[in-house]
Specification:
CATH topology: TIM Barrel
Strand content: 15-25%
CATH class: Alpha Beta
Strand order of the largest sheet: 1-2-3-4-5-6-7-8
CATH architecture: Alpha-Beta Barrel
Oligomer: single chain
Largest sheet: 8 strands, parallel
Distance between the termini: 15 Å
Helix content: 25-40%
């Protein structure tokens, strides 16, 4: 089995004391790569620092190639809809500069709309989202989308702004069947998290996930959030090693070989983020 956690937040303070152990546990579960996602300027900077300093202190390989030692870390830059109230021109310019100057930056986001808790006003969210769509196109990066309870506005903005060729993944998908098909029709990927493994919360997702074409699937943890089963019964904090549980459950409900599915999704992820591992 070969795995890639396509969306995590291991720059979070929850990992401050054991980040190297977290990365090593991911390696032991055949997680070959992780996307560390930025949600504002500070987290984007921290993710870049983490990716650029990702080395294995136990590596004694004389040619210093640690491909088998630690997974590859890549990053994104962006402003989450919760932080759209701080989406200034200056902040966006900083993110744009980071995207242009750091080779570990492989995507733009997490950006989108979240009308569930309304941490930022709707107008601010929509303006910030539109600005980031344009910037992602300018720097030629795929987008990591966040959508929650936007009542169709997310889809409307995507339909009205930008080229049909835009690359994007709807992170942590938990929408309706029709919404899923709308995103697939636009050419987007669907990110599946540990929600799939949860008995009650994941019931509807398990019904519609088999309808997603294999070549449009990405798997993710969204760590430290959304710990999958069975780890949820023992660990409160999620981590990239647990992405294996998402893959196993996905293969089970699709009734396919997990090793083969893992290879397909791994290749999807490399292609989506323009990587060669």
């Amino acid at each position: 089995m070969i795995l890639f956690d396509s969306h995590c937040h291991i720059d979070d303070k929850a990992y401050a004391n054991d980040i190297l152990d977290v990365i090593d546990r991911a390696r032991q579960e055949e997680v070959r790569g992780m996307m560390v996602v930025g949600v504002d300027v500070q987290t984007s900077l921290k993710a870049i620092e983490l990716a650029e300093n990702n080395t294995n202190p136990n590596n004694t390989n004389p040619d210093n190639t640690n491909k088998k030692a630690h997974p590859t870390l890549i990053t994104s830059v962006g402003i989450h809809p919760h932080d759209a109230g701080n989406c200034s021109r200056e902040a966006l310019e900083i993110l744009k500069r980071l995207a242009k100057t750091h080779t570990c930056v492989k995507a733009w986001g997490e950006t989108g709309l979240d009308f569930n808790r309304m941490f930022s006003p709707q107008r601010a969210q929509e303006a910030c989202f539109s600005s980031q769509l344009n910037l992602a196109q300018e720097v030629n990066l795929p987008l990591i989308f966040h959508e929650r309870d936007s009542k169709g506005r997310f889809y409307d903005i995507l339909k009205s702004e930008g080229p049909p060729s835009r690359k994007g993944v709807v992170h942590c998908f938990s929408g309706t069947r029709q919404e899923m098909f709308n995103y697939l029709d636009m050419g987007y990927h669907i990110g599946i998290t540990g929600i799939l493994t949860l008995q009650k919360r994941g019931e509807y997702l398990r019904q519609i996930a088999p309808l997603i074409p294999d070549d449009r699937l990405l798997i993710e943890t969204d760590a430290p959030y959304l710990t999958p089963a069975p780890q949820k019964n023992k660990f409160r904090r999620n981590e990239p090693a647990f992405v294996k549980s998402v893959l196993v459950k996905l293969a089970q409900i699709k009734e396919v070989d997990p090793d083969k599915l893992s290879q397909t999704i791994f290749e999807n992820t490399l292609k989506f983020y323009n990587l060669a591992l």
